[in-house]
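hi! just following up on the protien thing from before. the input was this:
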Amino acid sequence: MATTPNSTTFQPAFKRVAQQGRHDDTFAVIAMLTGNTLQDIFRQAEGLGLPKSGPYFPWIDADLVARLLAAHGLVSTVWKDCGSGDYTALPEIAIAGVEANLDWEVSRCVLYHERE
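and the predicted 3d structure came back as:
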């Protein structure tokens, strides 16, 4: 039988970075992965062409995410569909899109980290 860690003993692998607006979930995840602040990631994204005020979703794509991560020595791959709850194809650490709106081609991003 599997055991669930006690909430007092669980230590997350990444420090949580809170969102501050409606369009910064992807940047918050990148901040968590890189150990930077949300403001640092926003400044870096603005240097790559992100406008200083939103909405940002037309500019937040796989290329921008890859460029932001690469600037910190991290490598991203193409977006992959994990189907309805099939997380076996995901790597140990992933930026996962949830609550997708296929008409707008947007979703909220979360940090997925599988721990053994």
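The chain is about 25% helix and 15% strand.
The CA atoms of residues 47 and 83 lie 34 Å apart.
cheers
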